[in-house]
Amino acid sequence: MDYLDHLEAEAIYILREVAGQFEKPALLFSGGKDSITLVHLAKKAFRPGKFPFPLVHIDTGHNFQETLDFRDQLVKEIGEQLIVAFVQDSIDQGRAIEPKGKNASRNALQTITLLDTIEQYGFDACIGGARRDEEKARAKERIFSVRDDFGQWDPKRQRPELWNIFNGKIQKGENVRVFPISNWTELDVWNYIQREKIAIPSIYFSHEREVVFRNGQWMAAHPVLQLDQEDIIKNKSVRFRTIGDITCTAAVHSEANTLDDIIAEIKASTVSERGARLDDKVSEAAMEERKKQGYF
Fold first, then answer.
1. pLDDT in tens, 181-234
2. Close Cβ partners of 120 (under 8 Å, ≥ 6 residues apart)
3. CB 285 within 8 Å of CB 137
């Protein structure tokens, strides 16, 4: 067995633990490479049966169209249930306030919509594709990460996970966030995608796109960015290393149009994957503060 086989076996074991320990789990699906990998692992864990959980997408309304198209095509192919919850609904209901200003983003508002969705459907476990190598706050998190009845995370309440024994016991109203690929790196994910021949959205590969240079990053030139006369639109060969809300996800200059090219590019990179996420640059503890409030 090579190291990818070990990582795969661990992730499948975790997914099956979720199915065995929880009554109403869900798999949070963003349309990015990590959640796509989770779907592939779920197929290996549960086929020929159906998934013991639906896919849940929290849609900010500011997603890349390529991601949404890929999401819908994948769900059609695998024949599983997809639940889409919209941040716009939270805004319309007065549950969330639309940020203002040139650099406004709905990304943080996903927390409100997510917590409302968890409560609405009674989910007691939410599976996600976060990895420890992404960001220092995520490195603190266990594979089974308990949230209180307000959806909040307390890093001091982490449970020990010796010998891959996972404790999913929770009180009424609490839920657990589960990270089956927590021990994977960005490079592991790409090597696995290549080995398993997993389809991914086209924007992960190099393509010509109109972009603007803002806050030291190349951003997709899109109306939700609130473009003004200071923004000079250029056409560049770029790709997206991570996929999120258009307003906080930067592109990287790249000519990588194959998986081999992407893997070589990552090996040579001196910048982390989350270096292209502007929402992580608000402060040193930006991610940890959002996670404490219930962010995934």
1. 999 999 999 999 999 999 999 999 999 999 999 888 899 999 888 888 888 999
2. none
3. yes
**pLDDT tens per residue across span 71-122:** 999 999 999 999 999 999 999 999 999 888 888 888 889 999 999 999 999 9
34 within 8 A of 129, measured Cβ to Cβ: yes
Strands (E), 48-189: 55-59, 82-86, 125-127, 144-147, 175-178
- Which residues does residue 176 pair with via DSSP β-bridges, in sequence order? 125, 146
- According to DSSP H, which parts of the chain are helical? 3-21, 33-46, 65-78, 87-92, 110-121, 136-139, 186-196, 259-268, 286-293
Token pair belonging to 209: 């796109």
Task: Please report, for the chain, how many H helices and E strands are present, in that order.
Answer: 9, 10
State how far the Cα of 128 lies from the Cα of 228, in Å rounded to an integer: 36
CA distance 278 to 103: 10
Pull the structure tokens for residue 61. Answer: 């309304």
3-state helix, strand, coil in the chain (%, to 5): 40, 15, 40
Task: Say whether 279 sits in a helix, a strand or coil.
Answer: helix
User: What pLDDT, in 10s, does the model give residues 153-195?
Assistant: 787 778 888 888 888 888 888 899 999 999 999 999 999 999 9
SS3 7: helix
Q: Global pTM? A: 0.89
Nearest-CA neighbor of 88 among 122, 64, 62, 126?
62
The residue behind tokens 């975790």 is 14
Contacts of 197 (CB under 8 A, 6+ apart): none
- Residue type at position 257: N
